[in-house]
Amino acid sequence: MFTDEEAAVYDRQIRLWGIHAQQKIRSADVLVIGLSGVATEVVKNLVLSGINSITLVDNELVTDLDMLSNLFTRNQVGSSRADAVQKYVQELNPRVMVKVKNCSPAEYYQTSTIDLNKVCNSLSIPFFSAWAFGSFSMVFCDLGLKHGANDKIFIQFDQVIKQKSFVPKDTKIAKRKLEKIRKYKSVFLIFLTMYRYHEKNGNFPNVKTEDDTQLLSKELQQLETELVEELNNTLTDDIKWNSLDGWHSKIWGQFAFTTSIVGGFMSQDIIRSVTKENIDFNFFFHRIQCETEIEMQNHVKALRKELFQNRGYDPMARPVLNYTHSMNVSLYLDINYIKKLDIQTNVLESEGWIRLTWVDENLKWKAADFGGLNDIRVSVDEVFRPDITIINAVETENVLRTSTHSDLILWNTANKIDLGSFVDNPEWEVIDSKCEYKLHMYFEGASYPEVIYYLTIERKVTIYRYTVYFPVLCALLINLMTLFLDIRTTLRFHLSSLSFITLLLIILYLAFKLGFGALGTPNVVKYLGQMIVLVSTTLVWSSFAVSFSRSSFEVPTTVMRAIEPVQHWLVSNDIEAVQLTNTDPEDQLKPSTTGNNKRNQSASSTNLIVIQVIDKLIFVLFSILTIALHN
């Protein structure tokens, strides 16, 4: 029975498989011989499940290779593996009794695990064995003759090792097992080679230096060659065994991701055997990579030979089985980045992809016949391609095509183009984009389609705010301010000239920056040109107003009466003072008693009033034009 504390700790497990199953787990005693990466993962999982006791048998020390598994750390190098694992798992669940025996595993079996398996089988003690080499792993299970699953027919492990045969006495099982080996024969050959090495040397390959790796690789290759000859001479089925290349350098160490998965599956099945749950396997392989890289390459070669040689594929023929059928092509434009906008030539240079998708009915295959291959990479000249090109592209380059087993062709073309949309650019912002399809007709009633992409972009306000906008704004304000100054002051003409020169320099800077031969005219250049015209008009008006104010021309009485209602708003009340202030000193010394001088002074005052009224009207007009033209 469980205590309240144990019931609380194992509550989730009890809810999963029930109280009776947990009681069986609680009474289980487990012996673990050898603490490799897979074994330590199994020990951790079994201790967490709440077994009664577990005994660890190992006399090895922690080495650098053990760092590839889960439980060992760098500061444990040189210490006992069994003691290190005991300390770790005891902290995880102190309710489980963890025993350690620092002795050689050979004390528990004479020559190999096969002897130990026979003893366990005769006593109906579940026996599990697991190995992992690099990315390859294997699990063996024998639940004993009296287990609940003993109605199944199993292949004896010793027969596999000694006879290299998968032909059991029952013919029904034979075919099923042969099909399983057909699928995993590459991994099976690798493990047979490893066991042959163990049988010869008493241990599995273990490297410490680069020289050891080279020597062990040569020895494994020699053992593999011998095994291939034995298998081909012994087996009578249609499975042909061939040597594999490249795996000898990929079996060193036990990686954490491999041992975690294999140890997890193995722990699950150990618990199922303890609780008398039925297990559907006796001998199986668990491999992280479904097919070796060598076999995958062979499948690719076989598929390419089938598609392009055996079938007589013609890349110049339209890929349809019936020539009366049409072929649909989907066109996609993906712009990743804008590299350069040349205002002079009106070319937008960008980087992106044009994706073309169509169906090639001549490139179909069954994935199951070629190792599960769903797609392959092919050269652009090997398959049919539609007659599609970018007529105004700066540069194009064909890079890659992909053919899938369902006859779908994907062709990615790297391009530098002048159309499309793009992902955020520090200088330009997308305003609008659209696509247009046109059908063009040419001689003899033939036609060709055209797809046009339109992209509207706007320059982001960056340095132009300080080099263009602010100076232009100041120049325009100064120009408008001059209309409030007296016409007889030289300051008015100087300020207008300053505004004109400022705008002229800015527009020359932009012309040099953007190019005098630009096909398109930017809006800012158009606006500056219009403002220069207004400032020039101000200078012309100022010159005319000075001459008009000094003339003896008398303004008609009707004009004076027309502007009389707005004089107190638009005309300064201190005209006489302004006039006296601006009169030449020599004129002040002359006697002004003659009638002509009085008439001239009266006409001058009248002219000043008219000029001031016109100044205010021009100010209003220029202000409206400045704002309106900007918008």
From TrEMBL:
Residues 302-413 form the Neurotransmitter-gated ion-channel ligand-binding domain. Pfam families: Neur_chan_LBD, ThiF. GO terms for molecular function: extracellular ligand-gated monoatomic ion channel activity; SUMO activating enzyme activity. The chain crosses the membrane at residues 466-485, 497-516, 528-548, 608-629. Keywords: Coiled coil, Membrane, Transmembrane, Transmembrane helix. The keyword Membrane applies. Residues 206-233 form a coiled coil. Residues 10-100 form the THIF-type NAD/FAD binding fold domain. GO terms for cellular component: cytoplasm; membrane; SUMO activating enzyme complex. GO terms for biological process: protein sumoylation. InterPro entries: Neur_chan_lig-bd (IPR006202), Neur_chan_lig-bd_sf (IPR036734), ThiF/MoeB/HesA (IPR045886), ThiF_NAD_FAD-bd (IPR000594), Ubiquitin-activating_enz (IPR035985). The keyword Membrane applies. PANTHER family: SUMO-ACTIVATING ENZYME SUBUNIT 1, UBIQUITIN-ACTIVATING ENZYME E1. Belongs to the ubiquitin-activating E1 family. This is Uncharacterized protein. It comes from Blomia tropicalis.
